[in-house]
Amino acid sequence: MTDQLAGLLLLVALPLCFTLNGYWLAASLKRETPVERIAVAMAGGLGAVLVALGALAFFHPISGPWVAVCFAPILPTLLLKSVRENLVRDAAGTVRACPVMIWFAGVAFFAVLLLALFSTPGVLYFDGSANHDGFLWIARADYLLRHGFMEAPKFSATQPFASTGLAIFGWAPVNGRIGA
Q1: Sign of dihedral through CA atoms 93, 33, 47, 140?
Q2: CA gyration radius, the chain
Q3: Omega within 30 of 0 (cis) for the link into 173
Q4: Sign (positive/negative) of CA torsion 46, 89, 106, 68?
Q5: Chain CA centroid to CA 67, Å
Q6: Whose CA is closest to 21, among 69, 82, 90?
Q7: Are 38 and 25 spatial neighbours (Cβ–Cβ below 8 Å)?
Q8: In terms of C-beta distances under 8 Å and separation of at least 24 residues, what long-range contacts does 33-42 make, across chains too?
Q9: What is the pLDDT of residue 180?
Q10: 155 DSSP assignment
Q11: Tens digit of pLDDT for each residue in 35-52?
Q12: pTM for this one?
């Protein structure tokens, strides 16, 4: 249950981190509404994190203090008083701009999505099909927590999914297909 609560916290915290990460970009937009500035901040923050993670994963594992470097653009938002005050004003304006029914619909949709998580706590990943490609991608993402992207995985008899990384990372076969 603690893993599920940690995942829920992460699910709620990521949009906030994306907004903080990209708000320095949106703070300069003066003619847009608060909702538009928050949307630009989220999209810009997501883009900045993806670019930083891609560059980081090329050389280092995606874990430890290196991940904090990906969120360095949060610093101007937190340290500059004018940007911080604009963010608070925009957040308040966004909350006021949305009717109560939209907030209720969002919470209900989120609750329905989480129902599957809390009703079957033993399930790690299930996409409703017999296809196991999703699991292979999860295994490769787990590999990147301890290794850089350019480090070719070696075959392991105890962890055979490590050898599938060559196809997912594009090293071999050339077409990148597994089991074709």
Answers
A1: positive
A2: 20
A3: yes
A4: positive
A5: 12
A6: 69
A7: no
A8: 33/93, 33/97, 34/89, 34/90, 34/91, 34/92, 34/93, 34/94, 34/97, 35/93, 35/94, 35/97, 35/98, 37/86, 37/90, 38/90, 38/91, 38/94, 41/87, 42/15, 42/18
A9: 45
A10: P
A11: 889 999 999 999 998 898
A12: 0.67
Which structure tokens are listed for 162?
A: 């490590």
The region that residue 120 occupies, defined by phi over 0 for left and psi between -120 and 50 for alpha, beta otherwise, is: beta
115 is written with which tokens? 């129902």
Main-chain phi, psi angles of 105, to 5 degrees = -65, -40
Higher per-residue pLDDT: 35 or 174: 35
25, HSE (Cβ side, Cα atoms, 13 Å): 18
In whole angstroms, what is the distance from residue 172 CA to residue 28 CA?
Answer: 46
